[in-house]
Model the fold of this input.
Amino acid sequence: MKIGILASLLYYKYQSFINNFFYELGCEIISSGETNKRILDDGVKYCVDEACLPIKVFHGHVYSLRKKSDMIFIPRIMRLHKNEFICPKFCGLPEMIKNSIPDLPPMIQDTLYADSKDGLKNWAFSIGEKITNDKIKIENAFSISLKKQIESKKGIKDKNYKINVALAGHPYNIYDDFLNMNVVKKLNRLNVGVMTEEKLNEEYINRQVLKLYKKPFWTFARYTYGFTSYLAENKLVDGIVYISSFACGIDSVVIELIKDRIGSFPFLILKIDEHTGEAGFDTRIEAFADMLERRKAIEDNISASW
Amino acid sequence: MKITFPHLGNVCFAAKALFNELGIECVVPPPNNKEALEIGTLYSPEEICLPFKIMIGNYIKSIEEGADTIIITGSCGPCRFGEYCELQMNILKKLNKKVDFIVMDVPSDIGIKEMFSRIGKISHSSSKSKKEKIKALYKALKIINMIDDIEADAHYIAGYEKNTGEAKRFLNKCKRDAINSKSADEMINILTEYKRKINSVEIDKQKKPLKIAIIGEIYTIIEPFSNFYIEDKLMDYGVSTKRTLSPSWWVKNTALSPLRINSLDIKKASKEYLPLCIGGHARECIGEAVIAKNEGFDGAIQIFPMGCMPEIVSKAILPTVSKDLNMPIMSLIVDEMTGEAGYLTRIEAFIDLLERRRKSVLFRS
Ligand code: SF4
Ligand code: SF4
Done:
């Protein structure tokens, strides 16, 4: 069976699990591949206008696969951690797709509450049973892919750069190089090293969040807030670069919470949508890198004169 | 303690009566208007949704009048509303406004103890006996149910009345008299009186007015300023409207939801299109469209603020619903930049469309 896998949204976080699971079940995996202009344009065309860029791009990925696979994998992800949510758009993703893109093959859209291992397992079984009757095979596929997922190396932590920034944002904004116009490479080229949230122990992240009046109920918010504020407060990086898409409801809140916490710590917010021009985008990154460099030079001078 | 609260449709009637009865001073913010929106837009993050901004406007006006405690309801996701309180506290702090927030989250999220301690904050500043407090709450609930009922009746009758504008006139007068009343009992008397008046508006049963359901994001459909008084306008056009979401609906829905017996009809109606709750009131939006069709409505208008996450999902689904049901559904998106002229043109065009559809049906048969 040919199974269509979208290389978009949370795929960037869980690709090891997804790929291995279907592979072990004996499926042929048809990937939508990296985002490109075509995918973006189709996404913009088929998706509701008001949606954010990542959701539009996801629509484009689905469109590109719709004639190529027997089934498409679009799970409804309700929850990744206990008592937290991700985003209403993830919860309604299968519906958005179904009602926006014509002539789709059948969808695997099982609802996932991943806040317990049982929840995850039940979900995996209900998917596996659509593909094979062999329970042992599903069990194996599940444990292998879960193991691979846990082992998989995630995140970026550059070494040997004098200046370093925390690169914050949802995984699909950080790792989709087409969507973020190669922001990591661009920073590196400007001699700026990058660190992402996966490289910070989750305990630190959770401790940061305790200082809020209300614990954020979005997983993305907890991570991004904890990560950026911890690095800023402990001066482990020189600045923060936040990649966010226009019309992201979650970021509109998180960015304010971060600003409130870090005060005057250097903070660059890069907002992207389908109209973002690369030239202006580059200029802003360059200006930010310049600023960090100048600050660093001043700091070095001060400490040298002591 | 001088309490205030953000506007949400008719809540101000019940809140005023409640705090009066409890003997707690309370400031009702001026009705939502341009000024509230402008103040709110000035101090709020640009990309936050419209309700947030207008609420900030409400607080600031109330603080000017001496309010020192703000009471709001909370929620714990998945939508932004649950995060409102934290951001709003930060904004007011930065503006050097010294106010307390009392956030009424649901007990399942904050624990029953915390819930009682928050209620306790209000309750302690009232010198009334426990019995009187319960009575006050009871009256407030009665008021919210009555005023929402009256409003719903007026909106519906507007399509059938013989003397155009009568229902609307009564409704407006009713609200004015009620908010100026001196006590909960007086308010209840006024509402009883107007309920009678509105129901005795002379109607023409032969009339077959257009019927439109108002669906979408709860704040923007309930708070008339944020939707350019769409229901008033539809009354002027002699259109009957229905809106299920209202403060009294919200109270009932919230009270019943732990038992999972809330809004069963809506859940059933939306099942085919959106089988579970994704946050906000997206499921209600879809369900109400389906119910409207079953009740013989001509069309539905969805309203939501720019960037509203759950309603964007509904907007993606509604075209299918519309096609399946053969009922036009229009989506209107509002924010601080929405121009009134273009907005009104769209409403008029929609009414024209519904009228033409009616005629062509008559013609064909
Ligand atoms: S979290 Fe933000 S960017 Fe991601 S899907 Fe939701 S609104 Fe879009
Ligand atoms: S439902 Fe819409 S308007 Fe309300 S808080 Fe959520 S995003 Fe904002």
In short: Residues A 249; B 49, 51, 79-81, 217, 280, 305, 308-311 surround iron/sulfur cluster (ligand 2) (CB under 6 Å).
